[in-house]
Design a protein that fits this description.
The protein has 155 residues and is of the alpha+beta class. Among the domains are: 75 residues, no CATH class; 29 residues, no CATH class. It has five helices and five strands, in the order αβαβαααβββ. It has a three-stranded antiparallel beta sheet with strand order 4-3-5, with no helix packed on it. A two-stranded antiparallel ribbon has the order 1-2. 7% of the residues are buried.
């Protein structure tokens, strides 16, 4: 058996970690060893800072599928949001962000695509044409029902 990163979390008795059999049956592909800390969702840095990252008992760990692991960190356990993750922004905060970015150049300003990227973009766009119904414009390979070739200028 190859050395897995999660063996650092629980070097002894790792076969007692919850869902170990399921993960082992998939040869651990698509599985993550997650620290169980009740209601809290901590980052790796926070766990290390508090000394809770390495040398844990099997009862403090659980094997989760990557999807389950993502859901915990994206949405939090019991809808508790992790700081800095997916918390809805207030209208006031959205307005502040909008105002602070006025007049700033975009992130791609002054940069150019390399030739390989240009070819990939061109290949993806090849064969697509503009169609309109008089109000909406779409770019697709075939003309949808109710549309005709061309673009309707808005203004």
């Amino acid at each position: 058996m190859r050395k897995h990163k999660w063996l650092n979390y629980c070097p002894e008795r790792f076969t007692e970690i919850e869902n170990y059999e399921k993960a082992a049956s998939d040869n651990f592909k698509g599985w993550v060893c997650h620290h169980k800390l009740g209601e809290h969702c901590f980052s790796t840095e926070e766990l290390k800072k508090f000394g809770l990252y390495f040398d844990r008992t099997p009862g403090e760990l659980i094997f989760l599928t990557r999807k389950e692991h993502y859901d915990i960190h994206e949405f939090g356990i019991k809808t508790q949001f992790k700081v800095g993750h997916s918390k809805p922004l207030s209208e006031e905060h959205k307005k502040h962000i909008s105002e602070s970015s006025i007049g700033k150049a975009g992130t791609f300003t002054g940069k150019k695509h390399c030739q390989i990227t240009k070819q990939a973009i061109g290949k993806a766009q090849k064969g697509r044409r503009w169609f309109t119904n008089g109000f909406d414009n779409i770019k697709t390979y075939e003309c949808p029902e109710g549309y005709f070739p061309g673009i309707t200028r808005k203004g």
